[in-house]
Amino acid sequence: MMRPRDMKRELAKNDGGPLYAGVKQVILDRIHSGEWPPKHRVPSENELVVDLGVSKMTANRALRELANEGELVRIQGVGSFVAERKGYSALFEVRNIADEIHERGHSHEASVVILARETASPEVADALAVEIGAPVFHSLIVHSENGVPVQIEDRFVNPDMAPAYLEQDFTDTTPNAYLTNAAPLSGSEHIVEAAMPQPWECKLLMILKTEPCLMIRRRTWSARQAVSVARLVYPGQRYRLQTQSGVPQDD
Questions:
Q1: Does the model's pTM come out above 0.85?
Q2: Taking a C-beta distance cutoff of 8 angstroms, is the pair 188, 94 a contact?
Q3: Domains of the chain
Q4: Most buried in the list 104, 186, 212, 218, measured by CB within 10 Å?
Q5: In the 8-state DSSP scheme, what is residue 165?
Q6: Distances 90 to 73, 160, 189, 231 between C-alpha atoms, Å
Q7: Is the CB of residue 37 less than 8 Å from the CB of residue 170?
């Protein structure tokens, strides 16, 4: 439970240092002591202004820097929360995000934004090795971990390789799980970039427009035929990508 007097007293001990750094330390002390556990809602900017007697600019900088350092997760329109240990995705493996989340003991949810037949743009046609304007399947899905959005999956699929794609319930299964069965993977290509989110991506991921994201462009093949091309966007503060090679195992 937040005790404004105690917090204000602790802040007063921050002799000589920048005021925003003192606010950060007051919050960090409660996180590291366990008083504020993961997912605990921390005071808002306005609450810090009232409780600590600091300016809104000072409160904003403290919360913003703690989010950039991975200590907090800020969800636009909802508030700031103590961060859990970052989820992660295998960098050069084509894994099911639902499996990764379940392996951490967390719940996976999916929200389908788009699931439709469209015509291939020049870029999509080139990636899938089909004619420009040829029919393709398009899905746009937001994956969440314990109710917090962690990935936008924007995918185009070659209908010849997965003809029943549009008939699937992607709130119950995932495109990865369906495509693995419909067109077993024989190869993949990954391009990893840092990117600033587009406004519509900020809304879907519930992040600020200033929050950097990790982006993977992934193309997959089955029996030398292109199956799908996907653009996967992860909020940088909530997710990390990792790979291991040649790591010695314990005896």
A1: no
A2: yes
A3: 4-82 (1.10.10.10), 87-242 (3.40.1410.10)
A4: 218
A5: G
A6: 22, 28, 14, 15
A7: no
Q: What is the pLDDT along the chain (251 residues), one digit of tens a residue?
A: 446 556 777 776 666 678 888 888 889 888 888 888 888 899 999 999 988 888 999 999 999 888 877 788 888 778 888 887 655 444 445 678 899 889 888 899 999 999 999 999 999 999 999 999 999 999 999 999 989 899 999 999 999 999 999 999 999 999 999 999 999 888 888 888 888 999 999 999 988 888 889 899 999 999 889 999 999 999 887 666 555 444 444 54
Cα end-to-end span (Å), the chain: 45
Tell me how far apart the alpha carbons of residues 10 and 241 are, in angstroms, rounded to a whole number.
37
Q: Is residue 11 a contact partner of residue 28, using CB atoms and an 8 Å limit?
A: no
